[in-house]
Design a protein that fits this description.
It contains nine helices and ten strands. By secondary structure, the chain is an alpha/beta fold. It has a single domain, classed as Metallo-dependent phosphatases (Purple Acid Phosphatase, chain A, domain 2, 4-Layer Sandwich). It is globular, with a radius of gyration of 17 Å.
Length: 255
């Protein structure tokens, strides 16, 4: 039997409806003892139902992200630009009752025991805001994530950048984004915890099926320029376009 502290924990986050990327991670890490998902399962995405089907089959601790909250609360999209709202409506129409049930059952931020280790798991929104915690963010913003909890290892996502930071006795780890890299690398990023230590990993994947899925979304026929841009963000690895702070982080070698 594997000793708890020798267990292997797969840590994934920010899939954003990219089943191809999620499958690439699972193909690369065929054996693990525990799984942690840090939120943002399906939106904005060209493969929402396929992603939920695969993700929901993975037993483990699944945390709720900001896009997951949007999926179960449509009123949050009222002021979105028209192309994004149309895409969001298509995503909703693609999901089944069981898919929505999975999203509603995603768990809150908090302390969890995983593989015999105490971890603080959260999506990564400091004080409920959608600010992105980045490698050079102030110390106070990292500490705000934990809300004075005792766990010395904090796992978070949301900013789509692989990095780690140590503040006192607390270690903060972001596994990066499985499905929407933002630093110019079209790879699926994730992390593993082995023997109590965190390791960043990434794996390439074929974006062709993803792009085909984007062009199969009929409501986006009305927005050809948006669809072309959306596809380019995924193939280029700049998941929200070539903009700051992502371009600077890319220049600095972040993934």
């Amino acid at each position: 039997m594997t000793h708890p502290l020798q267990s292997k924990i797969l840590v994934i986050s920010d899939i954003h409806g990219n089943r191809e990327a999620l499958q690439a991670v699972l193909d690369s890490e065929r054996s693990f003892d525990e799984l942690v998902f840090l939120g943002d399962a399906v939106a904005p995405s060209p493969q929402p139902a396929e992603t939920v089907q695969l993700l929901s089959e993975l037993s483990g601790i699944h945390i709720c992200g900001n896009h997951d909250r949007v999926m179960v609360n449509e009123s949050m999209t009222e002021n979105w630009p028209k192309p994004w709202k149309v895409l969001d409506e298509w995503v909703r129409s693609s999901l089944s009752t069981n898919d929505f049930e999975y999203l509603r059952e995603l768990r809150p931020d908090g302390n969890y025991k995983v593989g015999g280790k105490d971890l603080y798991l959260c999506h990564g929104e400091s004080k409920g805001q959608t600010r992105h915690l980045l490698p050079h963010s102030p110390m106070s913003e990292f500490l705000a994530l934990t809300r004075d909890e005792d766990s010395d290892m904090v796992l978070f996502g949301h900013s789509h950048v692989q990095f780690q930071k140590r503040i006192g006795n607390k270690r903060f780890f972001n596994p990066g984004s499985v499905g929407q890299n933002r630093c110019g690398n079209p790879v699926a990023c994730y992390g593993v915890i082995e023997d109590g230590e965190f390791y960043h990993r990434h794996v390439p994947y074929d974006t062709t099926p993803l792009i085909e899925a984007i062009y199969a979304i009929e409501p986006l026929n009305e927005f050809p320029e948006f669809r072309e841009w959306f596809g380019e963000t995924l193939t280029s690895g700049f998941g929200v376009g070539k903009s700051e702070p992502w371009t600077t982080l890319a220049d600095q070698g972040y993934i």
